[in-house]
Amino acid sequence: MAEATKREFKASARNVRMSARKARLVMDAVRGRDAEEAVVLLGFVNRRAAPAIRKLIESAVANAEEYGNRNGIDIETDNLVVSEARVDEGPRMKRWRPRSRGMANPYTRYTCHMHVTVAEADYVADRKENGKPAWRKPRKRLSEEQRLAKTGRAPAKKEKAEKKEEPKAEKPAAKKTEKKTEKKPAKKAEKKTEAKAEKKPAAKKTEKKADKKSEE
Fold it and tell me: What is the architecture of the domain spanning 8-136?
């Protein structure tokens, strides 16, 4: 069976000595443009990442030409579009900078990986009409039941749902009211007895004072 002809071509540069954050600013300006237009535009961009990205796009176009020549396919490089332009963060390198009085300050050297994909304009347009960009593969989504069955949590959740559905036994409301009514008078009676007990010693004191006056 003959292989399907390629319609998108990639080029990547790894461990480029610059931060991914700064390179992404230039990549955002190039993404979605024609390959020729992007190369001309990068010649006027005053950023350190611009020459590296320009070489990368030229490399992807050269890969398309080489593939066409090797397989005898006529690929129009004028119609190529930058369908994907991505920058990933690379390994970081820790370094030390000597300072005064024998001290040293640490700093980090950042690196990044640049990836560019060039595709034919018709191919990109067809993918966009179907709602699928040319640089992204379709993702299979599982339903909620399939996910629960895959993780083995489906039966446990069903048991919990059954427990929740069971109605709670209702306690008679009459007993509650009876208990409340019984407690209230008992508390009031206790308070009254305590108040009387506190008042009695005061009366004794007055009697003692009267006896002392009579003796005098």
Answer: Alpha-Beta Complex (3.90)
